[in-house]
Write a structure and sequence with these properties.
- By secondary structure, this protein is of the alpha/beta class.
- About 40% of the residues lie in helices and about 20% in strands.
- It contains 15 helices and 23 strands.
- The strands form six sheets. Strands 15-16-17-14-13-19-20 form a seven-stranded mixed beta sheet, with helices on both faces. Strands 10-9-8-11-12-22 form a six-stranded mixed beta sheet, with helices on both faces.
- Helix 2 packs antiparallel against helix 4, helix 2 crosses helix 6 and helix 3 packs across helix 4.
- It is globular, with a radius of gyration of 23 Å.
- It binds nicotinamide-adenine-dinucleotide.
- The site of nicotinamide-adenine-dinucleotide has 32 residues, from helix 7 and helix 8.
- Belongs to the aldehyde dehydrogenase family.
């Protein structure tokens, strides 16, 4: 298969191509156009030219087209899920039942919402102030590889529904479904130039895109290192920065232990551990630490690692050999830092023949982790859990916050007062009490500290995709 750029509604061949590999089998899935400044400039010019007409389209008409795009995705869930699983190694049970259906929902949700954008009024004795919300213009939408289709639709849906035009740049490691999204947008009747897709490496295609003076807003999801670089490169623009995490999963002695264990396992091992909101630091009160560790390890060793196309598989391959090497380097580091390897490690999982050459790692659990160790401080972004004992509530809050990141957090306790106290004290954009991560499209999604700035979801998406204007009328 060959994947080209989509610029102004036309397939534009690359001057150069790179290969997208299936991380489970190493087979070449596609030759992908490698974009650079020329393609970015053409895509931004197309988006700029398409903007006035698209922005002026009455919201119900835009909504119809955006909803139609959702319908087209919903009609192709198995095919898109298969494509995403082949491209990323994310297991089919997740892509087919959760991630791709949710992508369709993103379009339905923002189609509805764009017809309901309202404003505020601030009457005074002398003036009537009211707010208008305008689309921003050309937006750069940049996505990572871990759940690329869902993440890109989470950006494309509000961006287009609110009347903006876009240049989407997917990760070079997972370009397949973005190419499909561009084609489906055209099929839905969204005019050429409204959604452009440029493929390529971050340095070659991402950098000229974020620097481009005609790009008014950047919605970026990716690593903290890249986020920092973009903020420096981009100049004065609107930003939404959804960055890395190392989220605390705090279990108090009075927690409903079975449920907490299930959720802890899910939050670190699902999505191959390649999840920004992973509960990767599992803080457990000392009085229950030994029992929790034993039962957590029992569950971790029962996890099926294998073919991502098998419905029973929970952990598929890491996205690339480079990423596998990074995850393995942390597994190797843990014991040297003084952590106890409780299960997993550097051995090879037992794999079906089809995926024998895949980028696999065993689900790994480290016990007796000190929060200052690198395995506890760095985002490993793989199926590696750190169990960290704590004394009491104050100690739990101190450890939870002793980290550069602040994306998500999880608190397990039956004490309602404590649940609210910890939720208020934890430095994170999101806190889930007695729950794994659940997404409601109205929630503000995003992080604080090194996990980013800005929030997306519901009216929070106004922040990046709409420009408020105050009108003051003299009375
Ligand atoms: P990455 O930062 O390496 O790349 C992300 C995207 O940025 C890719 O499309 C890449 O090509 C592009 N890019 C790279 N350099 C660029 C530059 N200089 N200018 C513009 N674009 C550039 O991240 P990744 O490895 O693809 O993804 C994993 C990271 O994403 C993890 O840190 C994870 O936590 C984070 N993530 C965050 C969220 C969230 O919502 N907070 C969600 C998913 C993933």
């Amino acid at each position: 298969m060959r994947i080209d750029h989509l610029i102004d509604g036309r397939q534009v061949p690359g001057r150069d191509y790179f290969q997208s590999l299936n991380p489970a089998t190493q087979e070449v899935l596609a030759e992908v156009a490698a974009g650079g400044e020329a393609e970015v400039n053409a895509a931004v010019a197309a988006a700029k030219a398409a903007f006035p007409k698209w922005a002026a389209l009455p919201a119900p008409q835009r909504a119809r087209l955006v909803r139609k795009l959702g319908d087209l995705i919903a009609a192709q869930v198995p095919e898109i899920a298969r494509m995403e699983t082949d491209d990323t190694g994310q297991v089919i049970a997740q892509t087919g039942k959760q991630l791709v259906p949710r992508a369709a929902d993103n379009f339905y949700y923002f189609a509805e919402m764009c017809t309901r954008v309202d404003g505020h009024t601030y009457p005074t004795e002398t003036h009537l102030n009211y707010t208008l919300f305008h689309p921003v213009g050309v937006c750069a939408l940049i996505s990572p590889w871990n759940v690329p289709f869902m993440t890109s639709t989470w950006k494309v849906a509000p961006c287009l529904a609110f009347g903006n035009t876009a240049v989407l740049k997917m990760s070079e490691l997972s370009p397949l479904t973005a190419a499909r999204l561009g084609a489906l947008a055209l099929e839905a009747g969204i005019p050429p130039g409204v959604l452009n897709v440029v493929h390529g490496y971050g340095k070659d295609a991402g950098e000229p895109l974020v620097r481009h003076p005609d790009v008014r807003a950047i919605s970026f999801t990716g690593s903290t290192a890249t986020g920092n670089r973009i903020v420096k490169e981009a100049g004065l623009k609107k930003f939404s920065m959804e960055l890395g995490g190392k989220s605390p999963f705090v279990v108090f002695e009075d927690a409903a232990l079975d449920r907490a264990l299930d959720a802890a396992v899910f939050m670190i091992f699902s999505n191959n551990g390649e999840r920004c909101t992973a509960g990767s630091r599992i803080l457990v009160q000392k009085s229950i630490y030994a029992e929790f560790a034993k039962r957590f390890v029992e569950r971790a060793t029962r996890i099926t690692v294998g073919d991502p196309l098998d419905e029973k598989t929970l952990i598929g391959p890491m996205i690339s050999q480079a990423h596998l090497a990074k995850v393995r380097s942390y597994i190797e580091l843990g014991p040297r830092e003084g952590a106890t390897l409780l299960c997993g490690g550097l051995g090879a999982p037992d794999l079906p023949e089809r995926v024998g050459k895949g980028n696999y790692v065993l689900p790994t659990v480290f016990g007796d982790v000190d929060n200052r160790m690198k395995i506890a401080q760095d985002e490993i972004f793989g199926p590696v859990a750190c169990l960290i004992p704590f004394e009491d509530e104050a100690d739990a809050i101190r450890i939870a916050n002793d980290i550069a990141y602040g994306l998500s957090s999880y608190v397990w306790t039956e004490n309602i007062g404590r649940a609210h106290r910890v939720a208020a004290a934890v430095e994170a954009g999101m806190c889930f009490v007695n729950s794994q991560n659940v997404r409601d499209l109205r929630q503000p999604f995003g992080g604080t500290k090194a996990s980013g700035t800005g929030r997306e979801g519901g009216t929070w998406s106004y922040e990046v995709f709409l420009e408020p204007k105050n009108v003051a009328v003299s009375l």
